[in-house]
Write a structure and sequence with these properties.
By secondary structure, this protein is of the alpha+beta class. Helix content is 29%, strand content 26%.
């Protein structure tokens, strides 16, 4: 009887251990699933322009402050109604600063330059525009329409911070790039036809 009683206890213990292991594995699986499909997902922004829709994927793991800054402008509606004011064929298209009349909008404080992040100014990649001062970027950004190695960190200087990539709508970028340009209020490479950002939103 004693031997049978002892074996019964061992079976119960084994069952408890097995059940505990199953519960632990399930918890780990749930946490991993939640992290993979929500916490580890790059944000995306839809930019609706008068030439069509451009979708940009943002790399917050590579340029966290830059992406946070960009999204703050998107969420506030800052970009709505602004135009592509600098367009250079075989180089890039730039926006985020001026309305169709050439008025420049007031911005938030400049941010730290995050150009040393491994991302390159290659075709379809999005970077912050700035002055000759490294930590001067605010709201203006550009989309590379060619591989612009000389804009990368360390080639000539601190470079320009890449923070995203166009994943849909490069045909729209190319159409904007091919616009006829003029000089407006002393600014060269301004498209003759106003090409506006109608709206931007996080997907």
């Amino acid at each position: 009887r004693a031997k049978f009683f002892w074996s019964g206890r061992m079976v119960k213990r084994r069952k408890k251990v097995i059940i505990s292991l199953i519960v632990i594995i399930l918890i780990i699986g749930i946490v991993f699933f939640a992290f993979s499909f929500s916490g580890n997902k790059n944000p995306k922004v839809e930019m609706n322009t008068t030439k069509g829709v451009i979708i940009i994927e943002l790399y917050s793991d590579k340029a966290p402050e830059t992406v946070e800054n960009f999204l703050s402008y998107v969420n506030s509606g800052f970009y709505n109604g602004l135009v592509f004011h600098r367009v250079i064929g075989g180089f890039m298209i730039q926006t985020g600063g001026f309305d169709e009349s050439g008025n420049q909008k007031n911005t938030n404080e400049p941010i730290k330059l995050e150009s040393k992040n491994g991302l390159k100014n290659n075709i379809s990649y999005v970077a912050m525009a700035r002055t000759i001062v490294p930590n001067s970027a605010t709201s203006q950004f550009f989309i590379n329409s060619a591989d612009n190695e000389f804009l990368n960190y360390g080639v000539r200087n601190e470079g320009y911070a890449v923070f995203g990539k166009v994943i849909e709508g490069m045909e729209v970028v190319k159409e904007i790039e091919n616009s006829q340009i003029t000089t407006k209020l002393g600014m060269e490479n301004w498209p003759i036809e106003n090409i506006q950002i109608i709206s931007m939103r996080i997907l």
